[in-house]
Amino acid sequence: MKKTLLTAAIFTMVLGTAACSSKGGDTAPTTTAAETTTAAETTTAAETEETTLGEDVEEVSMTGVITAIDDKILTVKSDDDDSEKKYDLSKAEVNQEFPFAEGDLVEIMYPYETTADPVPVISLEVLESVLAENTDPSATGIVKEASDTALTLELEDGESYTIAIANAYIIADNGITAGKEATVTFIGDLDDEPMATKVVMADSYSNSDAERNAFIGKVAQIEEGSIVLQSASGEYFTFVSEDLDFSSKKVGDTVRVFYTGTVTGKSIAAEEIE
Question: pTM of this prediction?
Answer without folding.
Answer: 0.59
